[in-house]
Amino acid sequence: MKRSLIVCVVVLTGCAQGSDESAPAAQPEAAVETTVLPNRLDAIVDELAKPGAPYMAGDANTSTHHMPYFLDSYAIRALCTQYALEQKPQYLAAAQAWANRVLDDQAKMIPFGAYYMNYGLYRQPGQAHGDWYVADSSSIAQGVLCTAHMSDHPDRIRYLESAQRFFDLVETNYINSDGGTSDGFWGDNRASWWASTSIFGAFAIAMYNETGTTMYLQRALQSFDWLSAADPANFMPEGAPGVVLYIGEFFVQAWPLVRGTPREDLAKKQLRFFFDWMAANQKSRNLDSPIDYCAHGQTYMAGLPYLNFTYGAPGGDEEVAYLRALLRSRIDFANVVDWSLTAWAAWSESAQLLALLPSPASVTPGSTGLVATN
């Protein structure tokens, strides 16, 4: 499968290139070590090939792969990106094997269209009780969608229909009157929440980029309006790195859709806030940052360079170098901290390689997908 590389760049990263005062100037091309990511991805392929098991905190079994599917999805997106660049069949095969497992679980889930999250303590396939989260599932959906984009028929259709079923489930049942998205079955909480709104919104953007169907764009813009009105700065006490990663990804992906529209100034405000926070807290730029990347709730930091590279803001190369030094001693994939750092770092590294392409890409959505333009 050899899809146009320019088209793949847009689907896999959003191609949200920023080039004005809304964020610092784009990074110049630099000498970047390009052999580390393939080695990391080879290790990811080997890990994903192990027999699967549900995630249970403290499970140290190295013979199974037992991580939450939402974490896996970022590794899958890195594999798809690297497949677009190198056409190594093992990368696409690993992504498809993971997606097939996700689809098999989805077929048994209640409600119809839900993704199994691979948590041992929450809703299982066939169960009509227990927590089930839109936020986690929206990350899973993006992994499935990236795999769909890289696949030939009939696999492409199977994966795309799976993503569409999930979208329809959430759009019909978990969108609130305020335009935000609830997190599904989160105890008794049915209120709109920043994580579910931003991650489902980013998924809607990816669906729009893939299909050109306007209902996905409409959902993305409603997510934009809800997040802008709520002001992401108000959510930072809930866990700043995660807020910056998930809402930051949404605004980076939304930028090409709102640039030149009345929403542009709001987007600039949020992007400036996120990139300022990153400049102050990424270890590569501030060694006195209090954030421990290896602590629970802090591993999101490994995904933040993705925002640097995808938007075109400075600091990504230095941060990836810091992450690579950190990851040399974090190779226990039975440990959720090591796996999450690895998955998010690979996602960031894949964006770094795409940023080294000689010219930016731009696209227009069409009825059958994306059409590259000059």
What is the topology?
Blueprint: H1 5-13, H2 36-48, H3 69-86, H4 89-106, H5 134-150, H6 155-173, H7 194-211, H8 214-230, H9 240-258, H10 264-281, H11 304-311, H12 316-327, H13 336-355, E1 362-366, E2 369-373
Antiparallel strand pairs: 1-2
Helix pairs in contact: 1-3, 2-3, 2-4, 2-13, 3-4, 3-5, 3-13, 4-5, 5-6, 5-7, 7-8, 7-9, 8-9, 9-10, 9-11, 11-12, 11-13, 12-13
Structure description:
The chain has 374 residues and is mainly α. The chain has one domain: Glycosyltransferase (Alpha/alpha barrel). Helix content is 55%, strand content 3%. The chain is built from 13 helices and 2 strands, in the order H-H-H-H-H-H-H-H-H-H-H-H-H-E-E. A two-stranded antiparallel ribbon has the order 1-2.
Task: Provide tags for this entry.
disordered N terminus; mainly alpha; Glycosyltransferase; two-stranded antiparallel sheet
Categorize the overall geometry: globular
- CATH topology-level name: Glycosyltransferase
How large is the count of helical segments? 13
CATH hierarchy class name: Mainly Alpha
Order of helical and strand elements: HHHHHHHHHHHHHEE
The CATH architecture can be named as: Alpha/alpha barrel
Structural class: mainly alpha
Main sheet makeup: 2 strands, antiparallel
- Indicate the mean pLDDT: 89
- Rounded to the nearest angstrom, the radius of gyration is 19 Å
Distance linking N and C termini? 23 Å
Order of strands in the sheet with most strands: 1-2
Task: Give the proportion of residues in helices.
Answer: 55-70%
The low-confidence parts are: 1-10, 13-30, 360-374
Could you give the count of β-strands?
A: 2
Domains (count): 1
Beta content = under 5%
